[in-house]
Amino acid sequence: MPHRALSQKRPYLVLSVVAALVFFYLQATDLPGLYLIPIKGSAVAFLALYAFMRHGSQDARMIAAALVFASLGDMAIELDRIAGAVAFIGFHIIALLVFLRHKREALEGRDSLIFLALLLGTPLVGYFLPYDPDLKPLVAIYALPLGAMAAGAWASDFPRLRVAAGAMLFIFSDWLIFAEMGPLSGSPIPQYLVWPIYYLGVFLITIGVITTLRKRDPELQLVQGGTD
Question: CB 3.0-4.6 Å disulfide test: which of 49, 54, 77, 155 passes with 12?
Fold first, then answer.
């Protein structure tokens, strides 16, 4: 039997990618920012719907909830960076809880070093990127749960090439935002790279978690919002 089109099987995934691309191209136009905010938020919101509709486990529900926080953060950060950061912390904490429910065996050697680098290096690098001394501790405080989330992804038994790699991309996108307050101030690099790197990271985390859960617990697979 021929495979049906991706748009038929996973419509929310397709809608998410389309929304992400539309936002990326429209942000370089003269369209007022208020019109872009819901488009931006819908990209990850559709990922949340995808996660919710594809699996009935508690882990899938938790990832969907984390993605809702990320979607709110995407929109809130356009209006207030503190509000956006608080929403993203919600994502980091919930995603970390999911990763802790799926821990690998004890890490050794290089794996343990990478774990520590993500956990401690993320806030440390974040602290030194802004030039404003008043912003440094705030950035480091935000980056603590960010680094913990990525370290948890690395220590989990989800596929690292998707989930841990996605978490690392999330870190890199945030470092670019922090660098915009310092060495990249006035540079167009953050404007063009933050969104695609961040979105790809969240996309990989979502796909990696959900496809793994569907393989491990096929009896909990759901098909609402798309057929298999």
Answer: 49
